[in-house]
């Protein structure tokens, strides 16, 4: 009588795990397909941000959720703007940011890549949006104080990050492909025009 009734729950759990695995693979497939389409991904996230802001404005609440979301996004932004190897924290064995004009060029590699930055922000707004449907997260607070505190925190954090960028002379943004404006070939510059 050992095996009686034991197969039902385990078979259902196996089927549920298999279905969850299939859905996870499907989600990862579409996530991978969206990787090269950065503009469309950010437009979709912008729409989600607009929906969240509209919901918070309409409900006149959930300011603690919005404040926590703002702190999380600020943390992600610091990771996005920081180099993978921080010269202040890491020992000098490996690729470093150039600090002088004579140093070898090393490309800027982010600590948090753009895709992971986008994905984390989108996921955070989805979680915050779902939290607005539960009244236990609507803690009554005086929101202007939270907004002022977040703005001060943002300014101080960005000031520190910009000072770090200036000290180690790096720009965390790709300003496009550099164009070489070298000398023209002598044959095209000095050839006489035939009239």
Oligomer: single chain
Q: What is the CA-atom radius of gyration, in angstroms? A: 26 Å
Binned strand content: under 5%
| Count of individual helical segments | 6
Please summarize the sheet with the most strands. none
Poorly predicted runs of 5 or more residues: none
Membrane topology: Multi-pass membrane protein
Keywords: Membrane, Transmembrane, Transmembrane helix
Function: Involved in the retrieval of endoplasmic reticulum membrane proteins from the early Golgi compartment.
Protein name: Protein RER1
Q: How do the helices and strands line up, and which of them pair or pack?
A:
Layout: H1 7-33, H2 38-59, H3 63-81, H4 114-131, H5 143-168, H6 186-190
Helix pairs in contact: 2-4, 3-4, 3-5
Structure, explained:
The termini are far apart. The chain has a domain at 61-172. The protein has helices at residues 7-33, 38-59, 63-81, 114-131, 143-168, 186-190. 60% of the residues lie in helices and 0% in strands. Helix 2 (38-59) packs parallel to helix 4, helix 3 runs antiparallel to helix 4 and helix 3 (63-81) packs parallel to helix 5 (143-168). It is an all-alpha fold and 195 residues long. It is extended and about 75 Å long. It is built from six helices and no strands.
At a glance:
By secondary structure, the chain is an all-alpha fold. The chain has helices spanning 7-33, 38-59, 63-81, 114-131, 143-168, 186-190.
């Amino acid at each position: 009588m050992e095996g009686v009734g034991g197969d039902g729950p385990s078979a259902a759990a196996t089927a549920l795990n298999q279905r969850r695995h299939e859905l996870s693979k499907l989600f990862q497939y579409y996530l991978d397909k969206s990787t090269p389409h950065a503009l469309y991904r950010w437009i979709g996230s912008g729409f989600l941000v607009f929906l969240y802001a509209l919901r918070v404005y309409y409900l006149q609440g959930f300011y603690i959720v919005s404040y926590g979301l703002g702190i999380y996004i600020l943390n992600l932004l610091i990771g996005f703007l920081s180099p993978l190897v921080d010269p202040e924290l890491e020992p000098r064995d490996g690729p470093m940011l150039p600090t002088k004009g004579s140093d070898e060029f090393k490309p800027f590699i982010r600590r948090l890549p753009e895709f992971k930055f986008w994905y984390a922000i989108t996921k955070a707004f989805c979680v915050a949006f779902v939290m607005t449907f539960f009244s236990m997260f609507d803690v009554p607070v005086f929101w202007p104080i939270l907004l002022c505190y977040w703005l001060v925190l943002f300014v101080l954090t960005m000031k520190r990050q910009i000072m770090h960028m200036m000290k180690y002379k790096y720009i965390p943004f790709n300003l496009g492909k550099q164009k070489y404006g070298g000398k023209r070939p002598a044959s095209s510059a000095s050839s006489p025009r035939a009239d």
